[in-house]
Amino acid sequence: MRRTTALIGAGTAAAILITGCSTGEGTDLGGTSGGLVAAIAGEPDQLDPHMTTSYFSFQVLENVYDTLVEPDENLEMQPALAQSWDLSEDQLTWTFNLRDGVTFHDGSEFTADDVLYSYNRIIDGELSNAWRLSAIEDIVAVDPHTVEITVSQPSPNLLSNLGGFKGLAIVQQANVDSGDITTHPIGTGPFALDDYTSGDSITLTANENHWAGAPEIPSVTFRFISEGSTAIAALKGGEIDWTDSIPTQQVEGLAGDSEVLTLGQTPSNDYWYLALNQNREPWSDVRVRQAIAYAIDRDAIVQATSYGTATANQLAIPVQSVWYSEYDTYSTDLGRAQDLLDEAGVDDLTLDLMVSSDYPETVTAAQIIADNLEPLGITVEIRSPDFATWLDEQNTGEFDMLMMGWLGNIDPDDFYYAQHHSDGASNAQGYANAEVDGLLDEARTETDADTRKELYGELATIIADEASYIYLYNPSVIQAWNPDLDYEVRGDRAVRFRDVSFGK
Amino acid sequence: MSAFLRNSTVRFLARRLAYSAIVLAGVMVVVFSLVHLVPGDPIRIALGTRYTPEAYDALLVASGLDRPLWEQFFSYIGSAVTGDLGVSFRNGSPVTVNLLDRLPATASLAIVGLIVALLISVPAGIWSALHEGRVSDAIVRVSSQFGVSVPDFWMGMLMITLFSSVLGWLPSSGYVPLTEDPLLWLRHVTLPAVTVGIVAGAIMTRYIRAAVLEVVDAGYVRTARSKGLAPAVITFRHIVRNALIPVLTIAGIQLATILGGVIVVEVVFAWPGIGRLVFDAVAARDYPLIQGAVLLIAALFLLINLIVDVLYAVVDPRIRLS
After folding, report:
1. Residue B304 class from Cβ within 10 Å (0-12 exposed, 13-18 middle, 19+ buried)?
2. CA pair distance B136, B128, nearest whole angstrom
3. Nearest by CB to B280, which of A43, A51, A225?
4. Tens of pLDDT along A200-236?
5. B15 strand-pairing partners
6. How far is A288 from chain B (nearest CA, A)?
């Protein structure tokens, strides 16, 4: 038995060796000195801002790239690579004055040609964000620091389309041509990509020459920690400084941990909705749609999908937005719902509800909705295909009702036009109302902000009254960070580290 | 027959090698068919929301799915043999590079995990068998049952809570390459390896106990005892060596399993191993990457099986002759 004892002894010695050098306090467990370590919930699929659709990619790219303009914390558009802009009298020509002396991370100069290249790449390649540039007729470089954009009709939402998120980032042609952009993107942003360890982390270093001033922190390391409990343990243990890999069921418990972490929570601009197929009987009848709107229990759906962290909303735009308008017509009222169905003269309905297994909250909500509609004699048959199939069936109209969300909108036009205009590109439910069409067209080109807001309030009310969409809720952006870090959560989910610093 | 072929060990190895090659060829056929067997259009599914007719055509040509089936098959096999497994649907990077990037982390976890498992199971299994029916045997049997039954997710969280959150001895997650900093590497690999090792060790303990029990009453052991040999000599030379065969088998399977990816443990400890790569590839329906990973895992399994077979022959001359 002596040899066995020796083996156990060796094991113990190894344990002392690896743990022995740690005192359990003040030990840096792998963090970069002075740098910030952020844990995101997954690995980017690729780092080309024009090609990726992954939020994990955009969390990193937010800090690597710039856009012509960018949203501030109130989601109003501010100068970025363009330091100012002018709009012609007829509202059809936008002239952007670019910043002087901006360089890409490899030292090459940023000019109007880079803007042209980036936008043309999106438009000509019909990339996924091409629709944001659909109003553009022509882009011209007047001189190396001036870009002129001609639009086909007045477009007050052009700025939010150009700068709403980093999917419209200004990229470098050489970087694209070499193919390096998918793993080693070169931008003009506050941080430059330094190192990428597959499956583990991406490290960025501060760009001392950034036009907004050098960032206060020398580096940012994004680690990929998909298991929320691990990320929380790492944050509490000081291994990381920031995370959004947080299971919603733990949010309530974390609120009590303010000594070791700061929890930030704000309603996002994303929204989830139901849409009934108005090309099919009996859902073409507005009363039947309203009956469904009265039957569903929003609070129960919010509780089940997000542990109560989301905010129920009967319109699309969240409460903190400047474009928010109040609306609370619907309440869970089965009597009212039954009356509406009786008026419409229908009973014993079967409803094909299409949700997607790629978005688990839709599957969860579908169970509750089925339960909510049962007392009305409506049999709900739930289908949950993958998202690609879901899109196909949406586009071919193979559904009675569907549930999905819209993410990352800023301008009110993004929230309503494509979805509810009778010619809208995303109007799969087949809503057509001449009055709403008129209001949408008018609001799209109205330049006075107050009038515009009134128009959107008016048309949103009609849309909800006629249940083109039955709006459900705005999910929250939930993030937690080291209490020493001065950081604020943004409703547009952008994760910006250029202004943050330690040791307040 | 030449003297070379009459050498039984060489013949034994040649047979095993040929067998492995046949299995690998079979795996290749299955892996190739994967893309054609899944319901729906793989290109349409891979593109998802990025779908445009142009993107579709581009990916169709790039992936070679527009060519005749037989041409695709031979081109796939030909490329695979030379180490070219195609490019990932997601970002156009070579699949081989994607896989090789993850191999060091996976190998670290597998090897340290197996060492932990052996450190647990060899002493525990032998001790338990030699003390059959006593209290210490019961303790080993109950603990190994516990180790086998406990979910590795729960075990991982327990490790993190205890050694990282409460005691602050070890980092909760992440990976540092051995070549970069050996000490940091060891500190990071310890918790995931112990988690993997406890589960694998519990399984192996039961096998070792059973194997030792089988030989402990064998005639030659009784003979050795009656000759008056020292108990340690009997235990190690007569009992353990004869009990080694099943242990080798199970250790090989455990090693191959960990190498093939222990997804849950890798997710819990944010470990950049093969398992998470496969998991992400499946979620993104990145068929070339899934195919490459399956092929790599199959090849690793066969390689380890081959090594185990060779070790059989070394340990037990009877196998060479059969």
Report:
1. buried
2. 7
3. A43
4. 999 999 999 999 999 999 999 999 999 999 999 999 8
5. none
6. 31
Burial string for B38-62 (b: 16+ CB within 10 Å, else e) reads eeeebbbbbbbeebeeebbeebbee
- Residue type at A157 in one-letter notation: N
Three-point CA angle A119, A120, A124, nearest 5°:
130
Contact predicate A242/A262, CB 8 Å: no
DSSP letters spanning B209-262: HHHHHHHHTSHHHHHHHHTT--HHHIIIIIIIHHHHHHHHHHHHHHHHHHHT--
User: Peptide bond preceding B182: is omega within 30 degrees of 0, i.e. cis?
Assistant: no
Q: Confirm whether the ipTM is greater than 0.95.
A: no
Chain B hits for A391, CB-CB cut-off 8 Å, are 48-49, 51
- pTM: predicted TM-score of the whole model, two decimal places: 0.82
A53 with B49: Cβ contact below 8 A? yes
Which positions in chain B touch A387 (Cβ < 8 Å)?
Answer: 48-49
Distance of CA B46 to the CA centre of its chain: 29
Task: Please give the Cα distance from A95 to A84 (Å, whole number).
Answer: 9
A231: chain B residues, CB-CB within 8 Å:
173
Rounded to whole angstroms, the Cα distance separating A354 from A398 reads 9
Q: Does B47 touch chain A (CB under 8 A)?
A: yes
Q: Which residues 262-291 of chain B have a CB within 8 Å of chain A? A: 267-273, 276-277, 280, 284
CA angle A177, A178, A184 (to 5 degrees): 115
Per-residue pLDDT of chain B (322 residues; tens, 9 = 90+): 444 445 677 777 888 888 888 988 888 888 888 777 766 677 776 666 556 677 778 777 777 777 777 888 887 788 877 878 888 877 778 888 888 888 899 989 999 999 999 999 888 888 888 888 888 888 888 888 888 888 888 888 888 888 888 888 888 888 988 888 888 898 999 999 999 999 888 988 888 888 888 887 777 777 877 887 777 777 777 777 777 787 888 888 888 888 876 888 898 998 998 888 888 888 777 888 888 888 888 888 888 888 888 888 777 766 665 5
Strand order in the sheet with A146-151: A82-87, A93-98, A146-151, A136-143
Closest residue on chain B to A40 (Cα): B270
